[in-house]
Q: What sequence folds into this?
């Protein structure tokens, strides 16, 4: 006659390994899903990201932009929009890059 206690312990150990294995598989599935979502978000943000290199304006543009006008659409995705709004030009620099200064004529 077979020893039922030993058989029960073997079945219990096998079921434990099956449950642990299933848990591990679920864990790996969750990790891969998170990684897939992260990569998708990176691709989307990289496609819509406006960097200072491809900015259609200049740094400090929003500081000089009229407050009664809506902010341009291309500035909404910019990571440096807050710094651009708060940008203070250096002392003595009152011109914007789009302005052309007239030469100063010296008097004798």
A:
């Amino acid at each position: 006659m077979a020893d039922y206690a030993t058989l029960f312990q073997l079945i219990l150990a096998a079921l434990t390994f099956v449950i642990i294995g299933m848990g591990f598989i679920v864990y790996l599935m969750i990790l891969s899903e998170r990684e897939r979502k992260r990569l998708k978000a990176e691709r989307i943000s990289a496609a819509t990201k406006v960097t200072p290199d491809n900015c259609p304006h200049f740094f400090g543009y929003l500081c000089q932009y009229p407050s009664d006008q809506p902010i341009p659409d291309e500035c909404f995705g910019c990571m440096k929009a807050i710094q651009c709004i708060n940008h203070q030009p250096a002392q003595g620099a009152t011109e914007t890059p789009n302005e052309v200064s007239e030469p100063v004529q010296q008097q004798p």
About this structure: Confidence is low (pLDDT under 50) at residues 95-106.
